[in-house]
Amino acid sequence: MKNILKIILIGIIAASCGLSETEPGWKISVLPSSVRLDPVTNEIIDNRFDAVSQENYEEKDLLEKNWIYDGEQVILHGARGEYVSFQLVLTSNTGSTLKGINIEMDPFKGNDSRFIVDPELFLEWAVEVKSPSTGYPEASLGTGWYPDALIPFEFIQMDSSKVKRRWTYPLELPDFNNRIDDQRSMIVWVDQYIPFKKENAKPGVYSSAISVTIGTETNKIPVQLIVWDFAIPNENKLKASLQHEGFLSRKDPAFELEIYHLFKRNRVSLMDPTYKPDLQISERGKITIGWDSFDERLTKYFTGDAFTSKYGYAYGPGYGEPVETFILPFNVYGKHGGSGWPDIGNIEEERKPDNQSVYRKVIKEVRDHLLPLVDPRKTELTVYLNGLDESYFPEAWDRMVYYGDIFKEDYPETRFRIDGGYSEKAMKVVQNSISSWASHTINYNIDKVRKYQEMGIQDWLYGPMLYESKINSWVGSSTFIDLPLINDRAISWSCWKYGTYSRISWGIGAGWERAWYDPESWKDTHKQLNGNGMLIYAPGIVPNVTGACPSIRLKTMRDGVQEYEYMRLLSEIDGNDERVEKIVNSIIKQPFGENSIGNLDVWIYDAEQWGRQRLQLGKLIEESTK
């Protein structure tokens, strides 16, 4: 009997030892927000970039340990008024579907208080890149699945008490709707806004934890947030912008407001030159402008009321601040097949005295109406004539001078902007008649641009970030899914390096409906570009997702803008740019302009180095304020 018991006991011990050596059915980890994980292979996608040799770079298993996660807990640092982020990774080690997943994160607590703003959780949706973006055989990170869309958890079904009728988006791995073959990991993006007011986020250490429960098993990772004793500005001083003709003005006003909220929260300004009041011109040249619908729709954006709790904006960057930029409705006959606003005919007719008189009367009426509505110190008013967009011939330059001089005289509060990669010959013609220039990045030679900066012309970086060849200048958008994620952060750092006024990119949501299942947002017989001109995803395509969804690339743009404000703060504290420039120059080399063509070595691609330099900026500001 004793022998039998001994055999049974040995068997139990052996079995338990075997279980302890078996990998658990699932596990969790944390990644920084500055990298992307392939949900099939668990490979860091951005580590595929090998077009540039990176000194002192050592590839590590970031799921085990990284610069914000030591394998046990997460440590974040941030200033008041900004967002900090990280990514939770849930990995399945079984061939079975993990169902009934519940993910939660507690509010941050510390200093005898708790944040008034809860963590925001998003399920990452991956898109399949089937062809590298045209023109980037070296820079593209290749084909495969890329996490990009961020679905707010309010659209994900975890709580059965809140599910009405059918379960259309339960939280499962593999994803119930994303349909990723052989999906190994689910990724959750976590955003935390640090309240702007000091009484709501006193400096010090705050704690929380993120937990995953499947069935009866719960795993947690502690999260520590160190709040520095300073705030970045509530307003978006950089005015980093996206322009998209008709994207906003053609939306239902309630949906339009939702989109404005989304971008305000991420510190990116929106431009749409197609907002127009009703305009009637009689045969005798009498002008009648109906402002009612225009004012009803836009006044709240000019006053800042749109970004308050009155209109559902409970908290976030830019609370109570008006839109940073607004493009006036003026246009001229010309490129893109459009007519003028006001329409005074074609090139041969526009300078006739009667037609010129009509145009200038409309300018006066628009100015008289908007002066009491719009504070130009907060909302930058711009005249952008789409009919002269990227026009590279002398007749167009002459028209730019003609209209630029009119607006300089009749509406001095506005900025007259031209867009394109203009030669010195062209700039010599127009330089005294323009006040703003969106310079195509392929033509942005800082040694030449500096002259126009010194003249007071506002320069905007416009176009792609990387140039393998001249064909990359085909587009006016800087956004690509399959290029290094760091590019979307680098543009704001580059603005600081070159003293650039700001940056602008074309496209808010080009192809945003089909993008859920086909990321080629720009597609024709000559080129296919992944995610170009598209930073948000449309509602109503994926089941239960009834609101617009941001992208990881938009969040990365936001991080760059926030870091630009760190640079501004430290520069103001120091009274010079020396310490800021040392940090920026350690990251940014010589992007843009003719010398960048064929050169991808324009900044550091190691996300860890970016993270460490951000920490250095924050610590220097913190130390300087004590």
Summary?
This protein is of the alpha/beta class and 626 residues long.
User: Nearest-angstrom radius of gyration?
Assistant: 27 Å
Number of strands: 25
For the largest beta-sheet, the strand count, sense and barrel status come to: 8 strands, parallel
Spatial strand arrangement across the major sheet: 13-12-21-20-19-18-17-16
Broad structural category: alpha/beta
Can you tell me the residue ranges where pLDDT is under 50 for at least 5 consecutive residues?
1-21
Number of helices: 11
| Form type | globular
Protein described:
This protein has helices spanning 2-21, 253-265, 292-303, 353-370, 394-410, 424-430, 446-454, 487-498, 552-574, 578-585, 607-624; strands at residues 26-32, 74-80, 83-92, 101-105, 109-110, 113-114, 120-129, 144-152, 185-193, 204-214, 217-231, 241-243, 269-271, 278-281, 287-290, 325-327, 380-384, 415-420, 436-440, 458-462, 502-506, 520-523, 528-530, 536-537, 549-550. It has 626 residues and is of the alpha/beta class. It has an 8-stranded parallel β-sheet with strand order 13-12-21-20-19-18-17-16. Strands 1-3-9-7-8 form a 5-stranded antiparallel β-sheet, covered by helices on one side. The chain has a 4-stranded mixed β-sheet with strand order 2-11-10-4.
